[in-house]
Structure formats: structure tokens, C-alpha cells
Amino acid sequence: MLETPTMTEVSSKTSQEAVEAENSLSNHVNPQKDSMTSRIWTHMLENVRPSGFVEFELVLLTFCTGIQDAISFPDYHCFASNQTGNTVFLLLALVLPWLDGEQFYLANIGSALGFFLLGGWATGQVSHIVGPRLRLWLFCCNLVQSVLVFAAAALQFRYGVVSHGAMAVTVIGLLAFASGSQVVQSRSMKMTEISTAMATAAWVDLIIDPKLFHASNRPRTRRIMFLVGLAGGSLLGAGVYRTVGSAVAIFISAAGKLIVAMMYLFNGADKPRKADADDNC
Known about the structure:
Layout: H1 7-28, H2 31-44, H3 52-76, H4 83-95, H5 106-130, H6 135-159, H7 166-188, H8 200-207, H9 218-243, H10 246-263, H11 277-280
């Protein structure tokens, strides 16, 4: 005889079918939304391709660096980004300690150099783990740098310019950490001609270039763009500093860095490498 299913079995089967139908419905309610999310995530996990657009972004960052250094020296007697001068001042303080407080402030110099190295070290080491040209990393990294510079501008707006002391060390530390993190990007993009900060090597490499006057010479052109960007940023920073003050100049620099962060969302990506025939055998 055929067994008739009990009411409990029928109810259990009906409930199971209802759950499966609900799960299936939730998975297919908005396939376009799932597809869009997947495409965005895939886009963010791509490696940014070195290109002319990246060159422009690095030159814009260089411009922002020029603005920062144009105000950091007259305000704090040190450089937020250019560590050559800070290194010399630091060694001078060891041999000629009476210059501390007259020609420079040792705490400011130590903060600038220390936080610059810390920013570069942290960014570089994390880059080794996540990938130096990962779009998501570049976006987040530049976003954090922008926030730090905005914070420095906010402190100056709130408390004014204090040449030395805890407030000065804080502002310098924020600017220097952001600059150290920024310099790492030119290395990751393999565009060392646009370091975004140090000009000495660019000047020397430019004048000794054996192809200096050749029409097609990308490294030379990059160095010139870098030097022009740094000079332009310094001039703008000095002009803003003279007319409306350094807080506005720092704010402009932060806005420029934020623009670069957003621009990284639109960079081209590396094309996937095709497997060699030997690898498939």
C-alpha cells in the first residue's frame, strides 16, 4: 500500500519550498544592482597603468608640494617636503646648538624629517602587501593625505600661525607625513623623474641628459614638467601667503590633493597578461 504523507511532512515540505523560493527571489530581485557592484569592485581592484594621465596627476601633486613648502619655511623655518634642507639644519643644530631658536627650531625640523620618513615608510611597506598601483589603495592613500593637509589648514584657521611649540610640531607633522606618503607614488608608478618633492636630482639629471635637445625624450620632458609644477606651486603659495595667509594656501594644497584622489578613479588599468603557451602545456 502507498503511504499517505502526514500533515507534518506536507507542512515541512511547503515551508522548505517557500524558503527556497524566497532565497531565489532575493538573489534575482535586482541583478543589475549586483552586476554594478561587482563591476565597481573589479574596477577598484585593478592596477593603474602608468600613462600621460598619471604624469599629469603627479605634476599636480608637485604643484601642491610647492604651495606647502612656500609657506612652511617662513612660518616654521623648515620644509614640510624638501628634506635636504631639514637634514642640513638638523646636523647644524648638533654642532651649533645656539642657532636653535634663532635660525631654525630643532623641534620643527625633527618633526618634519621624522614624520616624512614615517609617512614614506608606512606607505611603502603597505604598498608591498596590497600592491603599489592598486586603484583602491591609491585612492585611499591620496584621500588620507588630503584629510591630513585639510586638518593642518583647519588648525591654522582655528589657532593662527604659531612658529614653535606643540601646535607648530603638529601642523608640520601632518604636512610632512602626507608628503612622505605622496613621494612613494612616483616610485610605484616608475616615474622617478617626477618625484613630487625633491628638485636637486631633477635639475642635475636634466642638464646632463645626453638627449637633452632631442625632440622625443620622455624622461627629459617629465623632469621639465616636474620643475615647472614645483616652481608654479611655490609662486602661487608665496602669493597666497602674502595676500591672505598660509592657512588658505594649505587649504588650496589639500583641495588639489583631493582632486588627484578622485582622478585615480578614472585612470586606465593594466591589461590582463595572456598566459604563455608554455605555461598552458
